[in-house]
Description:
Elements: E1 2-11, E2 14-24, E3 27-33, E4 41-51, E5 53-58, H1 76-88, H2 92-108, E6 111-118, H3 134-146, E7 149-156, E8 161-163, E9 166-168, H4 182-189, E10 198-204, H5 212-222, E11 227-231, H6 235-245, H7 249-255, E12 263-267, H8 273-281, E13 285-288, H9 290-295, H10 303-309, E14 313-315, H11 325-340, H12 348-355, H13 357-362, E15 379-382, E16 406-411, E17 414-418, E18 421-422, H14 427-445
Parallel strand pairs: 1-4, 5-6, 6-7, 7-10, 10-11, 11-12, 12-13, 13-14
Antiparallel strand pairs: 1-2, 2-3, 4-15, 8-9, 15-16, 16-17, 17-18
Amino acid sequence: xxxxxxxxxxxxxxxxxxxxxxxxxxxxxxxxxxxxxxxxxxxxxxxxxxxxxxxxxxxxxxxxxxxxxxxxxxxxxxxxxxxxxxxxxxxxxxxxxxxxxxxxxxxxxxxxxxxxxxxxxxxxxxxxxxxxxxxxxxxxxxxxxxxxxxxxxxxxxxxxxxxxxxxxxxxxxxxxxxxxxxxxxxxxxxxxxxxxxxxxxxxxxxxxxxxxxxxxxxxxxxxxxxxxxxxxxxxxxxxxxxxxxxxxxxxxxxxxxxxxxxxxxxxxxxxxxxxxxxxxxxxxxxxxxxxxxxxxxxxxxxxxxxxxxxxxxxxxxxxxxxxxxxxxxxxxxxxxxxxxxxxxxxxxxxxxxxxxxxxxxxxxxxxxxxxxxxxxxxxxxxxxxxxxxxxxxxxxxxxxxxxxxxxxxxxxxxxxxxxxxxxxxxxxxxxxxxxxxxxxxxxxxx
Length: 446
């Protein structure tokens, strides 16, 4: 047994001082006041200990665009062209190296589980690898080696867009995303299986990228597994869907059986009141990615309205302009303030739930996210003695701390990050090398 001795811990929806969390075989065996008579191994955790963070929406290779796309102007659609250039050079080996570094950055920031919205499936011309899931297996290996759990949200992507005439053909730079049809997608994904640190889920890229009849096949395959979809991230998506199908994207997904307690709608930015009611009544999760939604000029979604309608909220870092789930949680509240001109829209305990328990559930991990007996021992110690957090009340640490203030990260009872440093990965070096390799190969293609 290992005892994690917490200066403060987030227990029962609030901060409590001087807490011992005993862990046996990776699970929490007890939570209670510090017992100085304990004879087992004791690991001191300074600051406020929170449950492990869940990053419910990631595109690992987008990390290569950080610091390279922000000054170019344009729109989401022009940014997407640059993203496609990065995707064009990925191989299983390069993707493993990049994703391992990106996932390492996540763990250092307190993330203990990631949902990877994965659509780079095949070679650049669309032909499959000898192992048709080589890219997905590279992501699995990267997450395992970085020390966090993975939900691989294998993504169906079949069309190049949508307009009033229907689905458009794939562009040349989209070919590697597609299996041709949803039945072939399902056959390939069925070759994947869960393991101790990986769940296999499904995703509909968007109503733009998957025709209506094919979306239904993906939903049928998921059958209780996590099922995610990009939803109404851009007004152009709504306009195209209404022109083609005479319904909103939310209405379309409801009609074909996507919405439900195992489903998560990512972004959910531009919704009607009826859309909000459909998502809430079905208990579908809503995943907000505030740092991406502002970086790509998407807009601010109706987070509070969705929560009040019954949709559990979770968080993601999406295109990784920032990997800081504390900032995502804080931005959920701050964006509400900007829209409604009122502070304190979300309570701190609601932000912690979005940051942890709700995100894990949306990814199919129902035994983690709360510091309680029987839960997986995922712990994140946020320091209170940095230049950012010094003087903060412990119960308000979410409104002050950033990823740089994470000191210790424990995943399934194992210390993966100590003193803010990953124990097995030189994260900065691996990021620089793998991202450099991506852009060198992009330049060689020109």
